[in-house]
Amino acid sequence: MSLDLSIIIVNWNTQDILRDCLRSIYEQCGEIDLEVIVIDNASTDGSVEMVKKD
User: Fold this and answer.
1) 3-state SS string over the chain?
2) Predicted model pTM
3) Which domain holds residue 44?
């Protein structure tokens, strides 16, 4: 599989912003083959669980 785009997001306790960011990426990228990698820095606000769930 060849990807058109890789996006790396670094996160620390910004669950709401991260949710909006991910939603926007998937809404705007349409048919582009992409991967999104979220790097979390020991968040305590539920960010990790939100990414796994959504």
Assistant:
1) CCCCEEEEEEECCCHHHHHHHHHHHHHHHCCCCEEEEEEECCCCCCHHHHHHHC
2) 0.86
3) 5-53
When divided into structural domains, the chain yields a total of 1
* Amino acid type, 54: D
Percentage of the chain beyond pLDDT 90 is 89
Reported as a single tens digit per residue, the pLDDT across 29-38 is 988 999 999 9
Spatial contact of 51 and 18, defined as CB atoms under 8 Å apart: yes
Taking Cα atoms as reference points, which of 25, 20, 48, 50 lies closest to residue 35? 25
Phi, psi of 46 (to 5 degrees): 90, 10
